[in-house]
Amino acid sequence: MLERFLDKTQFESYDDFMANFHVNVPENFNFGYDVVDRWAAEAPDKPALLWTNDRGEERQFTFGEMKHYSDQTTSFFQSLGIGKGDMVMLILKRHYQFWFSIIALHKLGATVIPASHLLTPKDIIYRCEMAQIKAIVSTGDPIIIDHVTNAKPDCPSLQILISTGPIVPEGWYDFNKGIAEAKPFEKPEHPNTNTDISLLYFTSGTTGEPKMVAHDFTYPLGHIITGSYWHNLHEDSLHLTLADTGWGKAVWGKLYGQWIAGANVFVYDYEKFEPVDVLHMIQKYGITSFCAPPTVFRFLIREDLSKFDLSTLKYCTIAGEALNPKVFEEWLRLTGIKLMEGFGQTETTLTIATYPWLEPKPGSMGKPGPEYDIDLVDGDGVPVEDGEHGEIVVHLPEGGKRPLGLFREYLKDPALTAEAIHDGLYHTGDVAWRDQDGYYWFVGRTDDVIKSSGYRIGPFEVESALMTHPAVVECAITGVPDEVRGQVVKATIVLSKEYKGRADDALVKEIQNHVKRVTAPYKYPRIIEFVEELPKTISGKIRRVAIRNKD
Question: What is the pLDDT along the chain (551 residues), one digit of tens a residue?
């Protein structure tokens, strides 16, 4: 499959990769027809999706079966009047119907809006108003059904409600019955062009209302690097990315790049995350490749890994937040596997990563990939030197053409789009520094960087230092206004259960002195607050802006 899109698929070094990687983009590319159906024609019995849940149910789908079920779903959606350009929201957790549905909507040329099951009626109304959503395909869970039902009267564009069960209320269509009874699918004459919108994400909104990030139909091809050269997958791989289908990380790690590589995608469908269950899955099914955010690995290293046979696990990648070196070192000690970090955004595909040819530096994101011309610039857009903090930007090719994988626009918000893309650059809003070997090190969001007594302090470097103290389970670093220093560093900390009874001035002093020993003393938190939990978005990202506003 890779040969269809790449002139060269094997690379001897990072330099070879950077010089010779190139994606050939077909005209009117459609992931449903050009990848899923192509695999079904060439290798119909090839494993595509191994799904299991926390109740012990299990299904292995081949590519032939994925074509069959996605065609049935496409026909069912067609019969309801869903077609090219229609906005359809999917609230499907980790249920296998998500894969049927997203492929079907691609085949129709519709726009897919993946959504979290944690949305409230207010969130649903906001999304319907902004995107003019025509249909919602949802799990039949009572809470989700109630939220959608309560939101519908305030969503005039919303015409079609579909439930995958077990509850299918009056006025809703039954997904499983619908695809079982669907007529044979007939492919539309012209489902899409490359520039049509295929995928629309509402960002999690750490600093304001969610933005609508629009990607075109070529976006899956941008994830060839994600699957084949970051996750390091091949046709015999069984890959697990631990993400709900409502988040962008799901198509990063459970769909596009993985299936182009020919890997079997493993899905564990659970209601409550239990670290020990993930370890059981790796052992029972022989998972070979695993990707999760640092938080998950922080939980896993607290388990007794000697009780599990993890010998099939060969490769681990990490993303979603910056990696604390302590986690890297402990996972390596326990498993012998190095965590290969990656960086990207909802607006992009993988932009910076530790690729197989690179030796990971714990805490570093790695180096830029060949799809994006990455740089670091100051507030005036001038490139900074190695060792200096700068905003991560993407240089755009002359003529305004976008790099493969970069979002098309913030839908219906040209001002916000122009704020992010101007003067030949896409501004990520993330700050990093680059070392003399070309590795990039995350500092924080531009709004999160603290300016104290002339120093620029990134929250992540202080958080990493804090995380090495046994009292700290989770933390967030923010700046607090100060008349003398401009700002001072504040740490908001969730304590481990062993230390909760010691939340006093003595512990504050102990933690402060610890940070002074671990990192540059001027970075230590002059203010420390102990809390039960940190404010987060529905996608689990820490909302430092909420802490700043409260202060």
Answer: 999 999 999 999 999 999 999 999 999 999 999 999 999 999 999 999 999 999 999 999 999 999 999 999 999 999 999 999 999 999 999 999 999 999 999 999 999 999 999 888 998 999 999 999 999 999 999 999 999 999 999 999 999 999 999 999 999 999 999 999 999 998 999 999 999 999 999 986 545 578 999 999 999 999 999 999 999 999 999 999 998 999 899 999 999 999 999 999 999 999 988 999 999 999 999 999 999 988 789 889 989 999 999 999 999 999 877 787 888 999 999 999 999 999 999 999 999 999 999 999 998 999 999 999 999 999 889 999 999 999 999 999 887 688 999 999 999 999 999 999 999 999 998 999 999 999 999 887 777 778 776 677 878 778 888 989 999 999 999 999 887 777 899 999 999 989 999 999 999 999 999 999 888 788 899 999 999 999 887 666 788 888 888 88
Q: pTM for the complete prediction?
A: 0.86
Other CB atoms within 10 A of residue 131 CB: 20
Q: Is 424 left (phi over 0), alpha (psi -120 to 50) or beta?
A: left
Please tell me the chain's helix, strand, coil percentages from 3-state DSSP, rounded to the nearest 5.
Answer: 35, 25, 40
**Is residue 499 a contact partner of residue 511, using CB atoms and an 8 Å limit?**
no
Cβ neighbours for 186, distance < 8 A, ≥ 6 positions apart:
75
Q: What is the dihedral of CA 85, 90, 94, 99, to 10 degrees?
A: -30
